[in-house]
Amino acid sequence: MKTKKISLKVNGSEIVLDVDIRESLLEVLRHRLHLTGVKKGCAVGECGACTVLINGVPFDSCIYLAVWADGKEIRTIEGECKEGKLSKVQQAFVEEGAVQCGFCTPGFVMSTTALVQRGEKLTREEIKKELSGHMCRCTGYQNIVKAAEKALNESEEG
């Protein structure tokens, strides 16, 4: 087994660890750092359940090698709640009933957070396209899209 020492910032904390060069970022986050909000769904980059932000951009962590994260900033769902207070995106998901079983929710929240941070005004169709890399088996997507719209609109207001 070949390993490499990597240094990354995860949810604001500096982390240094040796990783197997074949290890995915998902495996490191879940099994080594115990950030279980990052879900393993399909393991091939199709469902979006493992989405994290890498330098502010959403990526499927199941197909992103941990060694590629060296020197980067990673944000997971665990980093979104500050001092016990939900982020605006998380709050919008709660208010719009966009959470049922919750398995897909962290990925949707992280991708929506990236949309909010981009600061663009998006139509409903554009939001659907931006979130199309995610699968949800429970909600039928309508409440998720409404939550994303709410979060985007609230970010425009201040």
TrEMBL record:
<comment type="pathway">
    <text>Alkaloid degradation; nicotine degradation.</text>
</comment>
<dbReference type="GO" id="GO:0051537">
    <property type="term" value="F:2 iron, 2 sulfur cluster binding"/>
</dbReference>
<keyword id="KW-0411">Iron-sulfur</keyword>
<dbReference type="GO" id="GO:0006144">
    <property type="term" value="P:purine nucleobase metabolic process"/>
</dbReference>
<feature type="domain" description="2Fe-2S ferredoxin-type">
    <location>
        <begin position="4"/>
        <end position="80"/>
    </location>
</feature>
<dbReference type="InterPro" id="IPR001041">
    <property type="entry name" value="2Fe-2S_ferredoxin-type"/>
</dbReference>
<protein>
    <submittedName>
        <fullName>Xanthine dehydrogenase</fullName>
    </submittedName>
</protein>
<dbReference type="InterPro" id="IPR012675">
    <property type="entry name" value="Beta-grasp_dom_sf"/>
</dbReference>
<dbReference type="Pfam" id="PF01799">
    <property type="entry name" value="Fer2_2"/>
</dbReference>
<keyword id="KW-0560">Oxidoreductase</keyword>
<dbReference type="GO" id="GO:0004854">
    <property type="term" value="F:xanthine dehydrogenase activity"/>
</dbReference>
<dbReference type="InterPro" id="IPR036010">
    <property type="entry name" value="2Fe-2S_ferredoxin-like_sf"/>
</dbReference>
<dbReference type="InterPro" id="IPR036884">
    <property type="entry name" value="2Fe-2S-bd_dom_sf"/>
</dbReference>
<dbReference type="InterPro" id="IPR006058">
    <property type="entry name" value="2Fe2S_fd_BS"/>
</dbReference>
<dbReference type="GO" id="GO:0046872">
    <property type="term" value="F:metal ion binding"/>
</dbReference>
<dbReference type="Pfam" id="PF00111">
    <property type="entry name" value="Fer2"/>
</dbReference>
<keyword id="KW-0479">Metal-binding</keyword>
<keyword id="KW-0408">Iron</keyword>
<dbReference type="InterPro" id="IPR051452">
    <property type="entry name" value="Diverse_Oxidoreductases"/>
</dbReference>
<keyword id="KW-0001">2Fe-2S</keyword>
<dbReference type="InterPro" id="IPR002888">
    <property type="entry name" value="2Fe-2S-bd"/>
</dbReference>
<dbReference type="InterPro" id="IPR050033">
    <property type="entry name" value="XdhC_XDHase"/>
</dbReference>
